[in-house]
Design a protein that fits this description.
The chain has six helices and five strands; from the N terminus they run H-H-H-H-H-E-E-E-E-E-H. With 182 residues, it is mostly helical. Keywords: 4Fe-4S, Cytoplasm, Disulfide bond, DNA-binding, Iron, Iron-sulfur, Metal-binding, Transcription, Transcription regulation.
Amino acid sequence: MTIVDEPPRLPRVVPEWHESGACNLFPELDFIDAKGPAADACRVICRACPVRLQCATDALERGEPWGIWGGLDRLDRKAVAAELGYPAPAVMPEHGTNSRYAKWGCKCADCRAAHTLYESERRITARRKAKARGLWVSPLALDRPVRVGRHLLGPGQLLLPLPGLPPHHAAEPRPSDLDLAA
């Protein structure tokens, strides 16, 4: 089998052990969407299967979210995965989505681009809502370095003024990025 960076959802190459599986003798049973008595029948067949261990291990390594593999359904695989350090069985979103980046930690270029787009749209929406409610305050930019406690704030750093307090003497008002875009 070929080695890939990310475990595939379905094997790209059918493993050698697959042809020896007892499930191949029972094509009328649905091992992927088995419920009730059919699920019990699938488990019985798996108990007598000569490649049960390879089947279960392969499903655990892939984080397979569907069906009965090696006698283990999704909940069984989830418990075994947590105990032995395999990925939890779950349906992953497509590449190029923010949820794949944020929830699954995918750092591919498509997922990073989707996350960047999502964040920029979220910030623009939040600024518009804050402005509509009268909460938006234009930031101030420092014109020279200022020491605040142990921290040195550099020129050009933005400060958000607090309501009711006078602005810092080293700060000058800066036009808002939202005002420039509008």
